[in-house]
Amino acid sequence: MLNNIIFDRACIQFNESFSLREIDWVIEPGQVWAIMGASGSGKSALAAALAGAGRVTAGTLRGLVADTGVVSLESQAALIERERLRDDSDITDRINEGTPAREILDEVCANAKLQSRLTRLFGIDSLLDRGFGKLSTGETRKLLFIRALASKPDMLVIDGPFEGLDARTVPVISELLRNLANDLPMVLVINRLDELPEFVSHIALLEKGRIKTTVNSSDTTAMAALSQLFHLQTADIQIPAAIPGESAPPLDCNKPLVNIRNASVRYTDNLVFENLNWRIEPGQHWQLTGPNGSGKTSLLNLVTGDHPQCYVNDIFVCGHQRGSGESIWDIKQHIGYVSSALHWDYRVSISCKNVIISGFYDSIGLYAKATDLQQEIAVQWLEILGLQARAGQPFNQLSHGDQHLLLIARAMVKHPHLLILDEPCFGLDDLSRQLVLALIEKICGGSETTVIYVNHHAQDQINGINNYLTLDGAT
Amino acid sequence: MANYFNTLPLREQLAQLGKCEFMDPAEFTDGATYLAGKKLVIIGCGSQGLNQGLNLRDSGLDVSYALREAAIRDQRQSWKNATENGFTVGTPEELIPQADLVLNLTPDKQHSAVVTETVPLMKKNSCLAYSHGFNIVEEGMQVRDDITVIMVAPKCPGTEVREEYKRGFGVPTLIAVHEDNDPRGEGLAIAKAYAAGTGGHKAGVLMSSFIAEVKSDLMGEQTILCGMLQTGSLLCFDKMIEMNVEPGYAAKLVQIGWETITEALKHGGITNMMDRLSNPAKLKAFDLAEELKTIMRPLYNKHMDDIMAGDFSEGMMEDWANDDAKLLAWRKETGETAFETTPASDQEIPEQEYFDHGILMVAMVKAGVELAFETMTAAGIKEESAYYESLHETPLIANTIARKKLFEMNSTISDTAEYGCYLYNHACLPLLSDFMSRINTDVIGRGLDLDDDGVDNQLLIEANRAIRSHPVEAIGQTLRGYMSAMKKIT
Question: Is the torsion defined by CA of A332, A335, A336, A340 positive or negative?
Answer without folding.
Answer: negative
